[in-house]
Amino acid sequence: MNNSTVRTARSLGAGLRALLVLTLVTGVLYPLAVTGIAQGLFPGKANGSETEADGRVVGSSLIGQSYDLPPQNGRQTAGPDLRWFQGRPADGLGSNSVNTRYKLILSGATNLAADSGAVRGECPARPEDGTLCAQVLAARAAVVKDDSVPGHTVRPSDVPADAVTSSGSGLDPAISPRYAALQVYRVAARNGLPVARVEKLVEDHTEGRTLGFIGEPRVNVLELNIALRGLMTKE
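Now predict its structure.
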């Protein structure tokens, strides 16, 4: 065996040993260490921030979900179940067209510009236009209609921005305290609950800014509705 063959064999052997060692360290030991630390210190977050109710997982505190009635009377789309607090619109969500077996939901923004449908700063769009202006106007009209109950009328100027616009992902799990407060009278009326009790529920589930200065105050809709269900069973 000549020197060239020996050197080649040694190089291949060294490369194979390096591959095995790095695979063990980066592919086995490091993931196990990170997983162990995460499970030990942050088990909830490590497992997807699961939210439980009645002894079973009902969702994640990181992902918003809809509270809708099933389509009926020939409607193609479901309408909101007004007994519950509603989250932000999900206009950015689309239908999966690749893996049709699992009917996955896609996340994303509408990609409509902020001035979509606007003319000289005004919004003369019609709902059928498909512009951002049209979507906002339609969403605002729906909020005004749905959240106005006898003895409490919602005005268009009362509707906050997060009630009529979707987030960048379309899966935002939280709403502003202002939007949650706007829904209090409707939720109380639909469920036969005292307004004060529902207001207290919103107050108890309002989170402040992270570390006192990051983000905005918010209310997690899933957690709020779980608490609402608990309140209804007590009444």
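The first helix runs from residue 3 to 41.
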